[in-house]
Records
---
Amino acid sequence: MSEKMTKGVQILRGDPKKAIVKLSIPMMIGMSVQTIYNLVDGIWVSGLGPNALAAVGLFFPVFMGIIALAAGLGVGASSAIARRIGARDKEGADNVAVHAIILSVILGVAIPLTMLPTIDSLFMSMGARGEAVDLAIAYARVLLIGAFVAVFSNVGNGILRGEGDANRAMLAMVLGSGLNMILDPIFIYTLGFGVVGAAYATLLSMMVTALFIAYWLFVKRDTYVDITLRDFSPSRKILRDILRVGLPASLSQLSMSIAMFFLNRVAIMAGGENGVAVFTSAWRVTMLGIVPILGMATATTAVTGAAYGERNIEKLETAYLYAIKLAFMIELGVIAFIMVFAPQVAYLFTYSEAAQVIKPELISALRTLPIFLVLTPFGMMTSAMFQGIGEGEKSLVLTIFRTLIMQVGFAYLFVHYTSFGLRGVWIGIVMGNMVAALTGFTWGRLKVKALKRVFHGSA
């Protein structure tokens, strides 16, 4: 059987530096549009009043959990496919893709079956009552019924990334997020559906994205992988291969959400409700700076995965270090921008008279917290490299160490054992992240050296 040589596969097997750039840029664009959509979605819903905002807020952690599971499965598929492309195992890559699609169907059906009967009691257990709960239940039901669409879209996107097709992966993300921004005001206000309209807009946008991905994979069939049940060969090894990266990737995302919960608690200890208002505003701005790193991390997983499958550890090392260098340079620019324009950025969150009280603290936070981004590429690219070589559990350990142990731990220590007050939260997060990033990078370098010994010894 002759092997299809798509442009994406040629990129993956070619110059690792060019591959990192060509695969990173589309993912950065796609993730940036998604980030903008999240902000715009909040703005449209906020026009309905506090109960509507509370309703979306109640379902948000549940929805993030669903997306974390789906995105993790996508990362697992991406890594497993990239490694088989590097090893020139076309049949194996096809089989991984079929396994991933079947897993997405199982997960997509299991989520509504298990969650729909219990969602109302879940909201009540959070302590919410009255209209906010009724709105949250109506909002949640729409998105839970459509959970399969969200799971399939994330897994399909992972398959495309795994074979180096970052342009179509980006197009799917931009289509969904862009359409959602257009549909939100129509469903919420023009059609008068209110907060449930936001759920309909999200579901319809996800369906359009899923249809495009399904068309590319099953109808047009010009992708590297061929997905047909006829060629499906059940394999525990492939299942383990996908889940060994996919489950830790899902848990990594969940651990970041748990870390945010504890950091909010520390911010409240240090500065009360105003403290958490300052923290969430400054963190939201800082997280915009994470988008380029996330885009580069998806490329790093695919490129290092292909190099590992090819047993070319020099190429893997080049891709890994080049991704760190590029992301580091981008982040220096991001940090400089936020620091210089801190007063102007702070104004976006403090334009109302009532919010003026937090402005000085917010400017201070915006001039400290973004330093967090300086060494973040060293830790995150190491996590992405571990995912690429199929050792997802190491990536999870790094993420938990960085977020739950070092960031939360250092923030708590600086608040309790220094006189910095709220500023201690920012300093603690920055210091904890730097220690974690350097520890992770050291582990990554040692792993690459070990791989060189293994592969050169067996050559």
Note: The mean pLDDT is 91.
---
Amino acid sequence: MTTWFRTYYEDEDLRLYFEADDEGWAARQVEVRRQGLRPVTAASLEEVLHLRDHADLAAMFRYERQYGVLAEGPMDGWQDQPEAAEISAEEFERVWTEARQALGDSS
């Protein structure tokens, strides 16, 4: 079952939003710097896997420079993180769309 949630990383002043797949791995991730509400990450596992399988290393570097790096590993224990809360799919989609637009998504 897909889960959407957010947490807060105080050291970097980042609000992190995740869409976790059935196995608890990040399918999509958004990070927004609270000061100025500036998105810094909006990465997708599907896109990363496509680049890995169909593009070269330079394309992957360009993607990571533009959209950031997706978290690896299961998202176990997210409920224990600061300001953790489950969110709706609609809220995640809104944050995702805003972050992708801010980071230069042309689609």
Note: DSSP finds three helices and five strands in the chain.
